[in-house]
Each structure stands twice: as C-alpha cells, then as structure tokens.
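Summary for the steering committee. The consortium agreed at its last meeting that each partner would contribute one worked example illustrating the joint modelling workflow. Our contribution is presented below. We chose a case with several input lines so that the handling of multiple components could be demonstrated. No manual editing was applied between input and output; the record is shown as generated.
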Amino acid sequence: MKEKLERINDFEWLLPKKSRKEMRVDAKIIANKSIVDAIEDAAVEQLTNVACMPGVVVPVVGLPDMHWGYGLPMGAVSAFDDKNGVISSGLCGFDINCGINMIRTSLTAKEIKERAKDLVPLLFQAIPCGVGAKGKLRLSPGQLDDVLVDGVNWAVDNGYATKKDMENTEENGCMKGADPRMVSDLAKKRGVPQLGTLGAGNHFLEIQEVTDVMDKGTAKSWGIEGKGQATIMLHCGSRGLGHQVATDYLKIQEDAVKKYKIWLPDPQLACAPVDSKEGQDFFAAMKCAVNYSFVNRAVMTKWIREVFEKVFRKDWESMGMETVYAIAHNIVKYEEHKVDGKKRMLYVHRKGATRSFPGLPVIIAGTMGTSSYLLKGTETAMEKSFGSSAHGAGRAMSRNAAIRQFRGEKIKQDLAERGIVSQATHPMSLAEEAPLAYKDVESVVDSVHGAGISLKVARMVPLGVIKG
Amino acid sequence: MKYRFIDDLTSDVMFEAYGKSMKDLFENAAEALFSVMCQTDRVKKTVEKEVSVSAKNPSELMFNWLQELIGIVDTDGIFLSGFKITKITGRSLKAVCTGEEADPKKGKTVVKAVTKYGYAFRKTAKGYVVRASLDI
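What follows is the complete predicted structure of the assembly.
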C-alpha cells in the first residue's frame, strides 16, 4: 500500500481514495520522508481500512509517530459525520485518556540534581506503580461515581487539585455527559483500587530540565522561563477501569456491526452508528473513563507536590509547581471542524494523538532518556488534522524483542552515566522501554513542526525517571 | 510445549498455547497470560480464587477466560501462578486458581486486554491450539 503514497510536500503524503476500491475518502500521512520510509506497510493499510468506514470524513490522518495498532494505527486520527457516521471503541484505544500532565517549577535543574538521589526514591515510594500496585485511596462505589461524573471538580472538592489545575486541563478536567450507569460493575471494581496509581509499561513520572526555548513569548505565558528550569511530566491513563470500558464496548459494538449490517474491512474496527444506543452508551462510558484518568493524574500530582515539599522544605506554591497543561491522547470528542469550507460537528477519534488547538499546549513525550517537547497548537492543525498532533515517539520494536535485546541494569547504568537517576519496579520494565525500542522523537517533532500542525515551544530532557 | 510467544507486533504480545484436552489448553493459556503479567516462577500459591466463565462456544469461552483473568489482577490484587480447570464444557468452565497478593516487584507488564487480532481457536490432530494477542 505504501507504494501508492503521493508526496504533497516534505511533510505530507497523500494516499488517495482511488488506491483501494472501498475507500470513501483519502488518507494522509504527516511525517518526514525518513519516517515514512520506516512505517510498516501494515500500518498504512490500516489507515485505508478506516477510510472505508461509514460516514468517515476526509482525510484519515496518520501522524509521524504512527505504528501498527488494534484496528487503527497508534498515532492516527479519524473523524466521522455526526449523522451518518460511526463511533468506535477500537478507534479510541484501550487506555482511554492515556495522557500527560506537565507541571512547571521555579526550581533549577542544578537544585534537582543535588537532591535527585533523595527525590527519586521518595517519589517512587509515594506514587504506587507497577503491575499489581495498590492505590492509597479508599473510595466507596458512590464516591467512584462522583469521580466518573465530576472529573477534576471532585479532585478540587476533595483537596487533590486546585481550580488552576482544572483550568489548565483539557475539557477543564471533566467531559460533560459522563454516565456511570454505562460503566460495568467489573470496570468499576477494577477502577476503585487503582485511582492514584501510575501503572507500568510506557507510563512514567519524569523530572526534567528545560534545555531549549524556541518560542520565548509562548513559553513565558505558560510559566516556562528558560533553560535550566526544572519541570515534571506524568504519563498515565485510566487504568483497569478504562481498559474494561474499552473491552466491554468492543464486544457490544461487534454485535452492533451485525445488527446494523455495517460492512468493515477489518472486524477489529467494530463500531456503532453515532445515533445508536450502542454508540451513545459507549460515548457516555468513555467520558467516565476520561474523567477518571484526569482525576488519577490530579491525585498523583498532589503526591508529587508533597514529596517536593518534603525534600526542598518549602510549600509547593512557593516552588511554583503549577500545572502547565494536562492532555489526553486516546479519546473521542464531539467537535466542530470546517470541512470543505463548511462547519460540521464531527466525532473525532484520536488514538495516540493529541489535541492541537490554536494557541493551546501540545505535549509530546520522548522515550525514556530522550527529549520531550512542549509545543503549541495551530490553525494549520485545524485545517490538516482535525486539530491533532503526535503524542510520542511510537514503538519500533515489540516489548518481547526489547526485553531480549536490552538489559535493564545496563540501561539504568547508561542513564546514570548521563546524570539521570532512575528507579523502576524491576529491571525488565527499563528494558522494555529502552530508547532504541522507539522511533526518534526529534524526527517526530520536526515533522509536526515542519507540517505546521504544532510548533515547538520548549524542549526538555530527563533528570529523574520513575517507572512501574 | 505448553505455549510459545510469537514476535510480530511492535505494540502487542502474541502467544500460542497448546493442550491435548480443553482442560490442558485452558490451563496452559492462563499460564502464558500470567507469564506476561508477572514472574510466575516467583509467585507462591498461598491464595485460592475460584473462577467461573461462560460463553456461546469454546472459542469465546477461551477469550472470556483470558479476559476474566486479566481483570482479577485489578479486582482482587493478586497474581496467579497455578490454574486448575475443575469443570469444562464447550460453553462454561469452573476453575480454581492459586497465587499470592500482588507485589509489583514480582510484576512484569500491564495487560490491558485480549484482542481479536489474529485470534484463532482450533482443534488439531494432537488436541487444541489457541493463538491470542494481548494489548500491553
């Protein structure tokens, strides 16, 4: 399928709908040539599969971190008409609202480095992480429902977050219309013990140093003062609750495909008409998982602040530990976009893709040991990618292959030699997340900047890493 | 061989499990699953968990069994290393699983779900085979 790609410019490649009989719309890949050359053909084919779905709106977009996924590649965005389109659990991803919170500080990298050997172990103790880690909160079922409906409002009311945190969160930390009745008992049972846990895999807590500021004015308005400033990034999602919501509705939507006689080129693209019960029930349940994830990260943010207070013996406010922004990168949104010059309401599915709205922060996390970026959204993103951008580096190697190839102890040592203090539940979790198991984040960020869908504001590198 | 891993995906894990009987197959598939989630050789058998699963057919039963086991790590906070199917038909099973309280130091990778990618359940001349991929 890749042989059918047509170059539009250095960062955009068209896969016209004539490439395949069943395609209703064009697909597009936003990436530089070296990334395009390395993308798996199977992932490109997956983009064309989505371009065959009912009510799909042009174009289906692959972003520079795209790689093969379940139905739709990770690192892709697709939008559907709000009357004759579909809504799909699989096009959102299992980890609903996996996303990133970025926190600024007024501390310097030098201050962090001097205390990293105390800070990192204390953060590791304070933030439950790893498979099987138990959360510290004890919620009743009623309280969980409040979390699902109220999102970060609950965190503010219960002392875990501030109003400013909430304002600097996508959707103000709460998607309206969340209905806990649409979330299964099993999903809730999985979610109750896990609120305030980091998880494992590619989830992390990272203390960082700003090394470059490319857009001083925007950076300053977001609290990024300059080189040498310490920042924090927290990457996590909706844990077992979100995974179960996604699983439950994949099954429901597999039945919906038969019921509504929807032809699909790949059964993994199970979906339901947007105005069907199966479609709207999923949307309401997904919003619950979105809100849960925002609260999950808000709770951990509080504990991060408390550890910093303990180590630096100042309150967090005087250390300027404010949320820069909190974003989602696996989500379905009901948004207005211009298509062929006309405004339309669309169901935008971002799977491993970040919202990139004009003037708002975009966060692209690098892999362990590599750079992360803060960028700003643009009007160009609204025109080219339904206001979306990349979310990270994208895997280049399976976890099993990474565990066989890399040794966790060696990676820890390599990081230490570069001045990065790391702590993980066991060496394997460092091995599976080895930097060489991922694509090059610099190339991903150069691509989104070059295509104009999000523009570089600042670059950060890690000083300390905590992994589950 | 009870199971083996197939390395073809950059984002997921895929395994094939085998069994002369349905009982063997389901026990081996569970072992394969938990070998991804934790260091099963270090997980003691101090806690017992009874599991019941039903489905429309054997293929769906296997899928539901694996999905149920994934949820147990979160709902019960335990890792499992022993699996004994006590009753199995083509549409339901009962099992007694053994393990211990989950310790992240003995954990490996979070498994979000079983997926339908490449999912295959079949009877062979030697017994049964299932191929399943896990979203991790």
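The longest helix of chain B spans residues 58-76. Chain B has a mean pLDDT of 95.
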